[in-house]
Specification:
With 237 residues, this protein is of the alpha/beta class. It contains seven helices and seven strands. The protein has a single domain, classed as Rossmann fold (3-Layer(aba) Sandwich). The protein is globular. Bound molecules: zinc ion (ZN).
Length: 237
């Protein structure tokens, strides 16, 4: 976003929590920032909402349970590349594709996780990021964060540039856009994204299987991350 102020990672209060609806959202949306924080020895925690088990619904080699286990392992592997150890990860295991029906479980699960390390900063997917699970995560995550009044809330985007229309973008004054030059962190960010092998063509026996678009991955590795800081008057979901 041209002209937006620069985000200074050192000013974000610890601990920093990153919430991901699916394994890979954190790497694609904010892998550079997480890597920068990790390299600085900062305390970063990660919360995974869904089991990621819907990406390959008819794979004989990867029935749902196996797929979900593989994706959880990939998630932790990618986070380790960014400096977040497995001990600072929490996974709610909610059903992929059905987060719209899980508001209470997201809010309750997130609140319980946050109590273990009360967040100074929360990174969460933008309210109108164009994926139903991402949109469904917004209100319950903000609700969980409300128990920690001083928390800074920064929205990241995954699908907005790929699929969003103009109404999906934050409106002027709705949030405070901030940009971060992540070129120094592209190597770990790339490794974190590539850890998600099931989303990058590993599973070849499901014609309905999902693969991350090349354009989305290239954009994620473009060198800039944009955040939208949530202002005190919250954005309705
Ligand atoms: Zn996602």
């Amino acid at each position: 976003m041209k002209g937006a102020p620069t985000l200074t990672p050192a000013t974000l209060p610890d601990p920093v929590w990153v919430a991901a609806p699916h394994p890979d959202d954190e790497a694609l949306g904010c892998g550079g920032l997480i890597a920068a924080l990790g390299a600085a020895g900062r305390e970063v925690w990660a919360l995974l909402l869904s089991d990621g088990g819907l990406s390959h619904p008819s794979s004989p080699s990867h029935p749902r349970e196996r797929l979900a286990a593989a994706r959880l392992a990939e998630w932790r592997e990618g986070l380790a590349e960014l400096g977040v150890p497995a001990v600072r990860t929490r996974a709610l295991g909610l059903p992929d594709g059905e987060l719209h029906a899980c508001a209470g479980a997201i809010a309750g699960g997130a609140r319980a996780a946050f109590r273990e390390a009360p967040p100074g900063t929360l990174l969460l997917p933008w309210a109108r990021d164009p994926h139903p699970d991402h949109r469904a995560a917004w209100a319950p995550l903000l609700e969980a964060a409300r128990a920690f009044p001083a928390v800074r809330r920064l929205a990241y985007t995954v699908w907005l540039e790929e699929r969003g229309d103009s109404a999906d973008h934050p409106r002027p004054g709705e949030t405070l856009p901030l940009t971060l030059d992540v070129r120094p962190w592209l190597a770990p960010k790339r490794r974190a994204i590539l850890a998600h092998r099931t989303q990058l063509g590993l599973i070849a026996d499901d014609p309905r299987g999902f693969t991350l678009p090349v354009t989305l991955v290239e954009r994620a590795l473009g060198g800039t991350e944009t955040y939208h800081e949530v202002l005190p008057q919250e954005v309705p979901a």
